[in-house]
Amino acid sequence: MFKNYIKLCILIIILMQYNLYPDTVGIGKIINKKGSVKKSSLNCDNDNCNKNDAVIFPGDRITTGKESSADIILSDGTSIQIMERSDIIIYNVISKNKKTPTGIFSDYGRFKIIQQNDYLETSLIFKTRTSIIKSVCSSMSVITGSSEAGLFIYNGEAGFASIDPSIIKAYIVKSGHESFIR
């Protein structure tokens, strides 16, 4: 009887650990990795946060090394190809219940983004050190570094502006066009 009680306690402890970060609260998945790809969490500092390296949670940071890349799918239908030597933080993903647009920040890197959803208003906000990009159901490439950001729109359109408050111009970049901000 006592042995069964100990086994039950161990089973409960194990199941509790797996329920701390269940896949159901994930906001996306890493579907393909090549080379050195690291995922870490800004919201957690223990090993339980990254036990499932494929599931993306709010506040996760994904970095790629030399000759490395990762493909991710977010729960709102956005897919992102993270190219080599890139860094991205995914804060949240838009949903039908919560209308806050998908929030992404990148300090540096190159990204190809395809939005496949049915939102009619801004559904993605991509921030960099120098710019902010707002888009609705677009396909685009973003390149960002410490002092500038570039944007190319394959399909759809996106708003593109500097985060410097002294620069008041903002741009709408349409299909087949590009722009950059310093």
Structural overview:
Helix content is 10%, strand content 48%. By secondary structure, the chain is mainly beta. The chain has a 15-stranded mixed sheet that branches. The protein starts with a helix and ends with a strand.
The first-to-last residue Cα distance is 71 Å
Mean pLDDT: 86
Q: What series of H and E elements makes up the topology? A: HEEEEEEEEEEEEEEE
How many individual helices?
1
- Uncertain residue ranges: 11-24
Helix content: under 10%
Structural category is mainly beta
Biggest sheet descriptor: 15 strands, mixed
Counting DSSP E segments of at least 2 residues, the number of strands comes to 15
% residues in beta strands = over 45%
Structural shape: globular
- What's the alpha carbon Rg, rounded to whole Å? 19 Å
Structural features:
182 residues, mainly beta, 1 helix, 48% strand
Concise structural overview:
This protein has 182 residues and is mainly beta.
Draw up the topology in text.
Layout: H1 2-19, E1 28-34, E2 37-41, E3 55-56, E4 60-64, E5 69-74, E6 78-82, E7 87-92, E8 102-115, E9 124-127, E10 131-135, E11 139-144, E12 149-155, E13 157-162, E14 170-174, E15 178-181
